[in-house]
What we know:
The protein has one helix and 19 strands. By secondary structure, the protein is mainly beta. The chain has two domains: about 30 residues; about 220 residues, Peptidase G1 (Jelly Rolls, Sandwich). The strands form two sheets. The protein has a 17-stranded mixed β-sheet that branches. A two-stranded antiparallel sheet has the order 13-14. The radius of gyration is 20 Å and the shape is globular.
Amino acid sequence: MNKLNSILFAGLILLTTHLVFLSLFLFGAQTSLNAPRIHIKDSNSLNWAGYAVETSLSSPQSGAVTDVKGSWTVPAVDCSATPTSWSAFWVGIDGYSSSTVEQIGTDSDCSSGTAKYYAWYEMYPKFPVNLNIKVSPRDVISAEVSYIGKGSFKLTITDTSTGRSYTTTQKSPSASRSSAEWVAEAPSSSSRVLLLANFGTVLFSSSSATLNGHTGTISDTSWQYDPMTMTTSSGVPKATPSALSNDGSSFSVAWNSPGS
């Protein structure tokens, strides 16, 4: 190899290295996608725990859901056993029996043994967007996803403990609007479910949805609901929802295991 070729080769290697680091910088921060529910069988999922509602669980109506609301308390994670793990908590429209999700929520994650807390929204299958809102454990979060017409959704999250709030309008013309959800999730990366961080127990409250112009709680008789238990593929529970409160607006999800 002559001197000129050596210089060109070295320059190519340097450029490639910079591109790799640039890609990691731009995309590496988004560690996971909150992918639609991965089914095992009725009421079980590989990555979701909580509740979903549809006009009919066996034959849901598209275009029915226009709003979902809920509140939860940001759980503190224990990183001692799983120093790198994830847990997400959100309300959203779609994903239960459709391929898109319009959702907003918070994460309680473990990164090399250090707890990390943040807020985000996601218009799956697009990547999640982390928000410039400081979130701390035991903060009370209120969130809402509303369909505002012409394929557009308004997503709002408020940390009622600090007064900080964020609202965005996003488009998803292909959204089915067939389900509403209140979920604790083990996020996924490249279709692989990640380890579920030990969040203890998270309480969801003030849960409501609007379907076909009617607003009610999860247990409203105008629709059907599914309590979803998160399990491994072999059926070991990872997170389990409680029964609904008497008015159907509250429930808790308890962490059981990180999965694998």
